[in-house]
Amino acid sequence: MNRKLFLMILSACMLAGCGAPDGWTDAERSLITDQPDVMHVLTVDDPGEEALLRSQSSFLPAEALSDPLFNTLAAKMVATVTSPEQDGVGIAGPQVGLLRRIVAVQRFDKEGEPFEVYPNIRITATRGEPVPGREGCLSVPGLRGEVLRYQDIDICYTDPSTGRDTTERVEGFTAVIFQHETDHLDGILYIDKTVAPASKPE
Question: What pLDDT score does 201 carry?
Fold first, then answer.
């Protein structure tokens, strides 16, 4: 099947929520299981992929989080963002074609700077004034731009091990990554927020 057509069908199926007794649609299950460990990353270079990147993501139900497929997805998202081809610090569900509220973020504020996966993530509080910083994006290759971000935020997400919502305070560069990735879940790219047009790195 043509990749553009597949993405269109996948998007329509996910938005319609078709056939998901275990919390995953058939299209989502195929997307996760049929791809290699390093998943295809959607970019704005392809109009069909950009349309998906600019779509709204939905929350994952408890059934999806308790399904082994969640762990498969989490592992593949981390493998993708840490691959030599990408070498990123965060990745969101839409970037791998999945319109669900899930991100993988490198925790520079923790010992060992581990990558962790957060389902049903949202930012619930911000403190202080936003400050400018340079950003890039795996889905916007070859460009960087300056964006205003908060340095002190609260995140809320569902803990897969308990199924309960958890709130956590995050500061510094890691807070910036969370804001960048959660924007993806609302169909927003960093280039929509730059204080000047994004440009190629010098």
Answer: 82
Helix pair 26-34, 68-81: axis angle to 10 deg: 50
Q: How far apart are CA 169 and CA 183, in angstroms?
A: 18
Tell me the two tokens of residue 149. Answer: 């971000």
Q: What pTM was estimated for this model as a whole?
A: 0.90
Look at residues 129, 80, 126, 130 and name the one whose alpha carbon lies nearest to residue 102: 80
pLDDT in tens, 131-157: 999 999 999 999 999 999 999 999 999
137 strand-pairing partners: 140
User: Which of the following is catalytic: 28, 49, 135, 181?
Assistant: 181
Q: Which residues on neighbouring strands pair with residue 91, listed in sequence order?
A: 104
First to last CA, the chain: 39
Catalogue all structural domains in the chain, each as residue range(s) with its CATH number.
Answer: 3-192 (3.90.45.10)
CB-CB contact of 109 with 170 (8 Å): yes
Q: What is the DSSP letter of 61?
A: P
pLDDT digits (tens, 9 = 90+) for 71-128: 999 999 999 999 999 999 999 999 999 999 999 999 999 999 999 999 999 999 999 9
Phi, psi of 146 (to 5 degrees): -95, 130
Look up 181 and say whether it is catalytic: yes
Query: 152: which strand partners?
Result: 127, 171
